[in-house]
Amino acid sequence: MSDQVRIDKWLWAARFFKTRGMAKKAIEGGKIQYNGGKVKTSKTVEVGAVIEVPQGWDRLVVEVLALSDQRRGAPEAQKLYQETQESRERRERDAETRRLGNQGMTPPPGRPDKKQRRNIHRFQRQDADS
């Protein structure tokens, strides 16, 4: 464990990103917030800092508990941070909203057969002619 770690290295070591390059790209793109503000890749992380990180559909807000510049196993990486209670509640609420929103959608039964495909192509040609 080090006493000074760059934020791109810390995000990589905490397993938020697969490579340091991806972490750097996210930081430069303004997707990472450090204590509520924008950050540069050279910023050193401090214990107790609050970092906002995008994860798929969600944005995790985590508090830094420990510093590390080495990537280790996932159980050890999870000891570097703790997700805030508000972030956890918001993430669970958003997941439930997405689940309920997708509940009414039914996937198509399968691939279209020859007759259905002809109808699709005929419809597309009519739409293009208009």
From TrEMBL:
PROSITE patterns reported for this sequence? S4 (PS50889)
Q: Which Pfam families match?
A: S4
Q: What is this protein called?
A: Heat shock protein 15
Q: Which residues cross the membrane?
A: none
Q: Which domain of life is it from?
A: Bacteria
Q: Where is this region: Disordered?
A: 71-130
| Keywords from the named record | DNA-binding, RNA-binding
Q: Which family does it belong to?
A: Belongs to the HSP15 family.
**Domain named RNA-binding S4: residues:** 5-66
Please note every region of biased composition (Basic residues). Answer: 114-123
SMART domains associated with the record: S4
Biased segments, Basic and acidic residues type: 85-99
SUPFAM superfamilies (UniProt xref)? Alpha-L RNA-binding motif
